[in-house]
Each structure stands twice: as structure tokens, then as C-alpha cells.
Input
Amino acid sequence: PRLLRASAAPRRALSTPAFCFDIDGVLKQGEHVLPQAKQVMQILSGNNPLGKKYPFICVTNGGGSLESERCKKLTKELEVEIGEHQIVQSHTVFRSLVPKYADKPVFIVGGNSDRCRRVAEAYGFKHAYIPADLLAWKPAIWPYHKLTEKERSYAKDADFSTISFGAILVMHDSRDWGRDIQLVTDLVRAQDGVFGTLKPANDAAAWAPERQIPVHFSNPDLLWGNEFSQARFGQGALQESIAAVYKLVTGHELQRTTGGKPTRATYDYAASLLAQQYTADSPASINLRPTGPAPSLPGRVYMVGDNPASDIAGANGYGWESILVQTGVFRGSKPEEAEHVPTVVKRDVLEGIKWALEREG
Ligand code: G3P
Ligand code: MG
Output
């Protein structure tokens, strides 16, 4: 248990509303931090007529770095202190998979360089391999890319003809879809999760859905919003591409699970962290590994998102208020134009928060 600090943060009035912010398309557009986002953080940190502080958390289908690293980057970007207890990423819920795969080889897909391998190892996966390791082993496995010196510097040396993988974890957006479609398909149709092998075509038992190597995607986003004028393809588009090619080459449906928003596991975890902000004596005393179902929150929760299919669907499904902003994926003007109808549509995160605080009185 963490030691409680003497100086306790003031306990919040139990009717105080809480806020949950999506990141891409709400607080940021690509690397550009919206000025409105910085203003909102000032307001929630006490710079408001009541001098009140409001509990809040950032929940993103993004990822690619440790939560402890991401919150430091967000602190700099938003110019307020963001603690590890205030960030949930798409793969944060993969921590719950560690007991099952800690000692098994896992294939990690997505993100820049070997960052997701390092996140997986920090979570507790002891044998995490990435696509660069396979290209170092047999360059012909994906003939369209020659490993760079930098990639060689972090590629792990291994003989994959002797390694039987336990699972595939797609942790972030792929930087080479062709390579990753090829390698994931290779591994899913392999005998016992060994690259370069193939399940016998006539062995129906080997191809049974329950015998397939588990494939865990960290979010379902078909689209996400950055600074381009139209939404960009996300991990959901890669997932559908892999499933389509896998079906074409094997005739079988790809069995897979998906985390992130709008799944309940991600919202349960976010709610557990938010709830602690009302009662914790200090951020350091917040349990980052909450177990069990999320406690009900004392005040309303307002989720601000740009993606109806992840942010609004998740918030609505969780009984939270949903504010759909027009700075990311959603480019409409009326709630009914969204596939998942929000409580309200607002121009940006600042208009959204002003509306919510006015509504709360
Ligand atoms: O990879 C990022 C994207 O899928 C969505 O991120 O922050 O809008 O949930 P976010
Ligand atoms: Mg977004």
C-alpha cells in the first residue's frame, strides 16, 4: 500500500461533476494541442468563479507508451499536472492479460520502433517480440522492407522456428499495414503458433475457433481525427483488413477480442480511477490497479469525445452524459447526424465544458 501523504487534497463535495476527455480530436489534433484544451484544464483546476476543482481523466484509444510517460507528455502539452491516475490508454486494460501470458511468447504489433515491446515488458509480459525481430530472423518473410540500422539496433535475435507464440497483442496503430497483415495472418494460420508452419488443411480440429491463437486488438477505431481535413483510418480498419485477408487465404473467420473505447472494461477502469479522485487523500494514494466493478460516481460524468462510435457510444452505454465536439472525426452539426446520439453537440471542448458547468449550476 502506498504511504498516505500528510497534506490531504480537499475532499470534493459529493455532487461535484466529473469529466472524461478523449484526446485525439478533442484536446489535440495530431501533435497540435488545441488552445481551448488548455483553457479547459485551467477551469477544471480551480480557475473558475467558484474556485472549485473538478475530478477529470483522459481516456484515449491511442497508446504506444507507458501511462507514466504519457501523463508527463500531457502535463507539458496541457500545462497542468496530469497524474498517472488520470490517463487510460487503449492497451492499459492489457495489464489484465499478464497473468495468462506472462511466461509465454507474445507477438506485439503497432507503434513506433520497439516502444510497444517496452510497454508490454513493463506490464509484465516476459517474452515480447515485434515484427522487426521476424525480419531480422528471415528478411524474406516480408520482402518489401529492408531493416534499417536503427531497426537492427532494437531487433531481438531469435530462431522463431523454435518459438510457439501464446497470443498476438495489437497495441497501437500499425506503421506498416502490409507487413503486419502478412505476419499476423502467418501466425494465426500457423501450427502451434510457430512462424513458417501451417495447420494441416484437412485437420478440422486444428482449425476450430477455440484452437486459434488469441488475437487481442486494443481498440476498434475505424476512424480517428487529426489535423487533416478528413478522419484517418485507425486500428479498426487494420483489424478488418486482417480479418478479410485471413478469410480469403484460410476460409475461416478471424477470432479476436477488442479493448479500448467503447468496451466496458475500459470504462469500468476509468470510472474506478475517477471515483477515487473524490475520496483519495492525495493522487499518490490512488490505486492504479483497481479490482472489481467500478463504484457508482457521486456526481454526473461528462464525456467529451469526437468519435460517435467510441466516445459517445461508450459514454451513453455507461450512463454518462456525452458531449460530441466538431474538432475531430464528427463533422456534422446536429446530434441526430451522429450514429450514436450524444447529449449535446458543441463546437469544441471549451464550449462543451462551459455548457456542462452551466447545466450543473
Ligand atoms: O490511435 C488513436 C486513435 O485511435 C484515437 O485516439 O484519443 O481519439 O481515442 P482517441
Ligand atoms: Mg478522438
Q: What stands out?
A: Residues 22, 24-26, 224-225, 305-307, 328 surround magnesium ion (ligand 2) (CB under 6 Å). Residues 235-250 form the longest helix (16 residues). The mean pLDDT is 94.
